[in-house]
Design brief:
Layout: E1 15-16, E2 29-32, E3 38-39, E4 52-55, E5 61-62, E6 75-77, E7 84-85, E8 107-108, E9 121-124, E10 130-131, E11 144-147, E12 153-154, E13 167-170, E14 176-177, E15 190-193, H1 207-212, E16 225-228, E17 234-235, E18 248-251, E19 257-258, E20 271-274, E21 280-281, E22 294-297, E23 304-305, E24 318-321, H2 326-330, E25 339-342, E26 357-359, E27 362-364, E28 371-374, E29 380-384, E30 388-390, E31 395-400, E32 403-408
Parallel strand pairs: 1-3, 2-4, 3-5, 4-6, 5-7, 7-8, 8-10, 9-11, 10-12, 11-13, 12-14, 13-15, 15-16, 16-18, 17-19, 19-21, 20-22, 21-23, 22-24, 24-25
Antiparallel strand pairs: 26-27, 27-30, 28-29, 28-31, 31-32
Length: 409
């Protein structure tokens, strides 16, 4: 343990013990040398004048509450060697405007960034497998959150009271999300869902208990845009139940089945396009979607339907199906009740390469294809081959390989 308020750390030091600079109220800057491999618990707890911290490139772990209450801390650089961030590590660092979580981090403890109120966005890298409870709760400035593809569980109140959080991206390994994970996030309107093995709880819970504990239950009336990414094969039951303001729904090309009551009572949804791989739609999946005015079904074989799938949907609306199997749809119960029309295939336009995707506020271009991005006034805002491209939040036109598509950043 170091003497209170000592401001330098020798190059031979390999670890900083618990409470080393605890409540050192005059400490303003600290540099941790490359020899240090671990930082103990509450090392800089309550150092209220600490504004800058540089951590050496051998540190693999930061202990619980190491920087808790460092309310003046505006900048900290975490090393690529870091593997774990303890509970309450940066709790109450209210002046910290941004932080980059290194790619080697595998766990983020409970309340790790609690009340870091000046964060505007957070990206959790793919190697993180666990995010603790309230890890980003009361981060009242966050507008966008990306949960990486390694995360398996999003615990209770992880993003509680993130008042201006508008966009969330869920990684493809998530198998459990607490019903309170996004509680008191009244601005949440856009969700991108990449979870490919999320369980269908229909067999474990009755309908009422399931949807009340589903991930977005408390935010369901706020969400307007929901996208199922290209990793998703099954849409779990009740996920979007009673999202009464949902107007835009995007279903990824790999989806083969849609669970029961998923979009039941989405009363403002006007249009839906079903992918070519879809084989089944569960009971009451689009029940009481009164505003549905058009559907497109790309599957050549008519998907099987549970009972009351389209109960309350007008049978006069056009449903576009593949021309080569139009007669099959006309011979299939329920589908034949709609105003079936053949999709026009003669004038097909080039399709966007499957490797291109936009989620978490970034264009992902892993193959380095030439892409161009235009704003809605037709002005080019980007052209190049970068693996990732960011743009201010909004709607843009993406062009690649002769194809054009509207995308949301």
């Amino acid at each position: 343990m170091f003497r209170t308020c000592r401001t330098s750390i020798g190059n031979s030091v390999e670890s900083i013990g618990n409470y080393a600079f605890y409540t050192c109220s005059e400490l303003t800057k600290v540099e941790i040398p490359n020899s240090v491999e671990s930082i103990g618990s509450q090392v800089f707890y309550g150092c209220s004048k600490l504004t800058q911290a540089t951590i050496g490139n051998k540190v693999t772990s930061i202990g619980d509450a190491a920087f808790q209450g460092c309310s003046a801390l505006t900048q900290i650089i975490l090393p690529n060697s870091l593997q774990s961030i303890g509970s309450s590590t940066f709790n109450g660092c209210s002046a910290l405007t941004e932080i980059t979580i290194p790619n080697n981090v595998t766990s983020i403890g409970n309340q790790a960034f609690y009340a870091c109120s000046k964060f505007t966005q957070v990206t959790i890298p793919d190697n993180v497998t666990n995010i603790g409870s309230q890890a980003f709760a009361w981060c009242s400035g966050i507008t966008r959150a990306v949960v990486g593809n390694g995360v398996k569980s999003i615990n209770p109140n992880t993003f509680q009271n993130c008042q201006v959080l508008t966009q969330v991206t869920i990684g493809n390994s998530v198998t459990n999300i607490s019903g309170s994970a996004f509680s008191d996030c009244p601005a949440l309107t856009h969700v991108t869902w990449n979870a490919k093995n999320f369980p269908d709880f229909t067999s474990m819970y009755n309908a009422e208990s399931y949807y009340e504990n589903s991930p977005f239950y408390k935010n369901r009336s706020n969400i307007t845009n929901f996208t199922f990414g290209e990793d998703v094969e099954h849409i779990p039951a009740f996920l979007c139940y009673e999202m009464s303001n949902l107007t835009t729904l995007n279903i990824g090309n790999k989806v083969t089945s849609i669970g029961e009551r998923v979009f039941s009572s989405c009363s403002k949804l006007t249009q839906v396009s079903f992918p070519k791989n879809l084989t089944s739609i569960g009971i009451m999946a689009f029940d009481r979607c009164y505003a549905l005015a058009e559907m497109t079904v790309k599957a050549t074989t008519p998907p099987t339907l549970g009972i009351y799938v389209f109960d309350g949907v007008s049978r006069d609306i056009p449903v576009y199906v593949p021309a080569e199997t139009l007669e099959d749809y006309k011979a299939t119960a329920v589908w034949n009740e709609f105003n079936l029309k053949a999709m026009q295939t003669a004038l097909q336009t080039p399709s966007m390469p499957e490797s291109i995707s936009v989620y978490g506020g970034l264009l992902h271009n892993p193959q380095g294809l030439p892409v161009s991005i235009y704003d809605m006034q037709g002005r080019m805002v980007y052209s190049g081959t970068a693996a990732t491209v960011s743009q201010p939040a909004g709607v843009y036109v993406l062009r690649c390989a002769g194809a054009s598509s509207k995308v949301l950043f």
